[in-house]
Amino acid sequence: MKIRNLLCLILSVFLLAALLFGCAPGDTGSTPEPSTESPTEPTIEERKPMPENPRILFIGNSYTNDTMPILFSGFARAAGYKVAVDTIVKGSHELTLFADPNDTYGARVEMYLNKSNSYDVVVLQEKSILTATEELPKFYTAVRNLHSRITATGAQTVLYSTWGRKTGSAALPQYGLTNETMTWKVAAAYQAMGEELNIPVAFVGLAFYDVYTGDSGIEIYNDDKTHPSYAGNFLSAATLFAEIFQIDPTTVNFNGTLTAQEAAVLKEAARKAVFETPEIPAEYKTSSEGIG
């Protein structure tokens, strides 16, 4: 009888505790708070994986050139993709002109976007100095125009953020810039547009800055201190490949005509620019909202 009474007492205490603390046997004793977060638009991280036979269109000027897309294709094929690459390239051309169907190259953009075999990705590259000067609103307007047309085809827009010109370039003092300030202004402009439209940005210019300010001794600029050398084109291709395919370029067995050591340095800079993108200093950050 005493044992029965003791068991009843223990059971009563246990049930009382359950009532007081609001939990039943096996419960954690805590009630999750209801979520107060509002639904958000899909982020660029949720973009669709690339198909096995991706079609890529590059639109830009001499920074896109002929060599870089070939190297980009080399990366993609070495990674196992049967990629097809088209280009619409005109030296010194601005995206405003590429967006204008009355322009010779703008008409070509219109034709390519209306092809029955639509693209998976369309890459946009603006005239470099424009994104670091008071002409920046032209960039915003042109990207919005082209992006809306690209999206209508089902393709993904990717922005190709270019670099600061090499120290000694006549354009730098002309516009009150240095290699460093131009690097950050260009990156900030592309970041603002990427954030507004929720589209990916390949920060090629930040990869350039990493190599240029490092001690590798690799020359990524041509003698004119603005256009990319072969190594610069390789660096651009590696960064664009990493951003578009979301693959670490250091894992891809493709070196072009570079030595393994040179290629490794450039691939690592591209990897960091994409997967460890440096924070843009506060004094350069900007917004494209309502501008253009």
Number of helices: 10
Poorly predicted regions are: 1-42
Q: Note the gap between the termini.
A: 89 Å
Q: For the CA atoms, what is the radius of gyration? A: 26 Å
User: How much β-strand is present in the residues?
Assistant: 5-15%
SS-based structural class?
alpha/beta
Mean pLDDT metric: 88
Number of strands: 5
Topology as a string of helices (H) and strands (E): HEHEHHEHEHHEHHH
Strand order of the largest sheet: 2-1-3-4-5
In short, what is this structure?
By secondary structure, the protein is an alpha/beta fold. It has helices at 2-21, 67-78, 95-98, 104-113, 136-152, 171-174, 179-197, 204-212, 230-245, 260-275; strands at residues 55-60, 84-89, 121-124, 156-161, 201-203. A five-stranded parallel β-sheet has the order 2-1-3-4-5, with helices on both faces.
